[in-house]
Design a protein that fits this description.
The chain is mainly α. The protein is built from eight helices and no strands.
Length: 212
């Protein structure tokens, strides 16, 4: 009988889902470590989806009625407080800080630049592989969108974001094994397509090279 390997390969390192999600408040929220906030978001999303998708409420009318009700309550509260010598409504400073606006603008700028770079690579660089990937992704999005409304897609995204990280954190080893098998199968099929179709497509000569 052959001798067994005295140094077997180490098992794959287990990924910390909490660290992969940033390790902060967002990770605690998605992993239900702050179950109160996650429950509020899930219940609120479910209520909004039922009101607008099933009950047939109009979003503009609903928002207008809610804001009108809040304004009337605050107005009557402030008037009664001045008459009865009571404290005014405890409203916080309702303003957005410049730092928050700058951070949001930076995030939006990064995504816009990425989209523009992809568009330039397709239009100017004439990258056929990138064009096929983008076209396939847009076709998949259009196909899925034909079955669900935008509000339903947003609700599904909220439910998945609050369920997938928790399930993956609990069953990570089993899911990783299945993902490795799926990745090998997909990679094999992609190589076949790349060898039989994509590599036969003539690529344009880059005219932007510097002259020697």
């Amino acid at each position: 009988m052959g001798e067994s390997d005295p140094h077997p390969p180490p098992p794959p390192r287990r990924i910390s889902v909490h660290q992969a999600l940033g390790g902060g408040a967002v990770a605690d929220f998605l992993l239900w470590k702050r179950w109160c906030g996650a429950t509020v978001v899930l219940v609120s999303a479910s209520s909004f989806w039922f009101l607008f998708e099933r009950a047939g409420y109009n979003l503009l009318s609903f928002v207008s009625n809610v804001v009108l009700l809040l304004v009337v309550i605050l107005f009557l509260w402030a008037k009664s407080a001045s008459i009865l010598n009571r404290p005014l409504p405890p409203l916080p400073d309702m303003e957005i800080s410049e730092e928050t606006v700058v951070k949001a603008a930076d995030v939006i700028r990064v995504w816009i630049n990425y989209v523009l770079s992809v568009a330039r690579e397709i239009a100017v660089g004439r990258n056929v592989k990138l064009f096929l990937k983008v076209a396939f992704g847009l076709w998949v999005a259009s196909y899925i969108g034909s079955f669900f409304s935008f509000l339903t897609l947003v609700y599904i995204g909220v439910v998945l974001s609050l369920s997938v990280p928790v399930l993956y954190n609990k069953y990570q080893d089993h899911i990783d094994d299945k993902l490795r098998i799926t990745h090998r199968v997909v990679l094999t099929q992609y190589k076949k397509i790349d060898d039989t179709i994509l590599r036969k497509i003539p690529m344009p000569i880059n005219m932007g090279k510097k002259s020697q």
